[in-house]
Design a protein that fits this description.
Arc Repressor Mutant, subunit A; two-stranded antiparallel sheet
Length: about 140
Amino acid sequence: MADAVSVAKLFSELYEAAGAGRRLGEGIAAQAGQTQARWQTLWTIGAGPMTVPQIARRLGVSRQHILRLTNSLADEGLIESGVNPDHKTSPLLDLTPTGREVLDMIDRGAQASNEALLQQLSDSDVELLRTLLQRFTEIVKSMS
C-alpha cells in the first residue's frame, strides 16, 4: 500500500512530466511563431467560439491572463470577437482563417511529436496513463 512518501514522489513525477510537456509544447509552438500559452488559447477557441471567462475556466488560469493573450492574438489577426447573444459585454472569440492556419500548423507539429511518443509507448500504455491521470485529477479536485 502506498504511503505519504509515495504520494509525494507521485506529485514530483507529475511536476517533472508537466515541465517536460511544457518544454516540448513550447518547441512545437515556436515553429509557428507562437508560445504554448498562445497555442492552448487558440486550440481552446478552435473548439468553438468562447468568451474570455470560458477560456480561462477551461485552461485553469486567470481571466486577466487570457484577456492579455486574446488581445494580442486579436491584434495579430488570429482571432476575432463576435456578438454574444447571452452577454453583451463578453464577446464570443473565434479563430480567423489566419488563426486556423496557424493552429493547423502547430497541430501538425504536435501530431508528429505524438507519433514519435507512440514509438515508445503502446496504445494500452497511453490509455492506462490517461485513465489513471483522470482518476487522480478527479480525486485531487474533490479535495480542494
